[in-house]
Amino acid sequence: MSITDHDLRTRLRALPTELPQRVFAPAFPGAVRAGARRRRNRARVAGAAALAVLVAVGVGVPVGLLAGSGRTGASVVPARTPVFSFGGFSVTWLPDGLTHKLNTAAYGPVDGAGHGLPPGQAGSLPGNLTRRVVAADPTTFGSLFATTDARSDANPSAAWVTVTWRSQTTTNVHTMRQSVDSFVEGGGGNVDVTPDTVAGRPALVLRHDTATEAQFASPPSGQPTSPPAASRYQTALEWVDATGIVLSVELNGPSYPDTAVAHRIADGIVLGTMPTLAGYTPPGAAPVPVDAATAASARAAIEAVYTAGTPDDRWAAALQEGPDLLTVRAKTARLFPGLASTLKATVDTMTRVDADTVQASVLLSFTDPTVPTALGTDALPIGVTVARGTEGWQVTRASYCDNIASLQVPALSLAC
User: Fold this and answer.
1) CB count, 10 Å around CB of 34?
2) CB 234 within 8 A of CB 190
3) Does residue 311 have a cis peptide bond before it, meaning omega lies within 30 degrees of 0?
4) How far apart are CA 107 and CA 415, in angstroms?
5) Per-residue model confidence as pLDDT tens digits over 299-339
6) Structural domain for 340, as ranges
7) Assuming Cys at both sites, which of 56, 199, 316, 317 could form a disulfide with 67, CB separation 3.0 to 4.6 Å?
8) How many domains is the chain partitioned into structurally?
9) Do 259 and 360 fall into the same domain?
């Protein structure tokens, strides 16, 4: 049976003007509110479970979603088409004017294929405080974003975003603070440190005026006496997440950049999974012995690179991309003549990482009072990776450049 519009209107007009009101028990409103609370709690639990599943299967999750921010009025930047992705993480927000310039892996700038850039090819780079106070690691990846024009008033003028997936030295903000203290004591200049939080995790904000560094306050002959004005001041936000990943957002500018900008970038970092690294063995893995022939070849390469007086041709042949690094060797000798003339390497232990990679523990001895005090007095224990390629067994460029970075001379690190 169907009903016509006329019938419907007639029945509606016949309804009383006041419909009877339903009487509710006194406890009914409270029950409704309790039910709403239960539904909200179930939604939160379901959301947390879903987030855990995403993390477990390796789906990228914004840092700001991993825990409560702990900052009043903080806004979480949702995952979207990344501004840029590299090293297993993505940056999803940047202030206007900053665009991607280059990437870094392990111990220096790399090209699109992940190979180290030859000296000078990276160009002039703004200072990276993070890599100088937080020890670089084989699992460290970073990206630099900078202004594309020559304006000196842009603030920030540059931003470094760095992720270390499995740091062997920085485990919390306390070890991070100790690294800052060592940097300052070694002539790094003044660093103001204040506590903060990122995604509910303890964090540090570092503010550094690069003009206070010893290299500018008492520069060697022929070296610059002041840093570039556009990137003189650094504001770095550093933290370690609940899984041990070390993250940093560092800003450069003509005056101290705003910490809020660093937080906004940090909230939008999306973590995926650590890239596969050839020859990398996670800390704690059982050592694998090295056969006598391999040990002899690896030891010969190490001693050639880390012994004073090795001829340039033999030195270059024992080091990956050695010919490109001869200028770094020469600069090091000019700045630290005692180190260059007395350096001697003693191989302590070796372990095989894979068929073509060996990791060695080496003690360097030398006599040079000008070497930064943070390195000790006349001896330095280091780790050296030796890899077999088309040129035979060679010290990796990453190992050599890591040791050069320990000298705390930015010009050497950037050239390496």
Assistant:
1) 11
2) no
3) no
4) 11
5) 999 999 999 999 999 999 999 999 999 999 999 999 888 88
6) 292-415
7) 199
8) 2
9) no
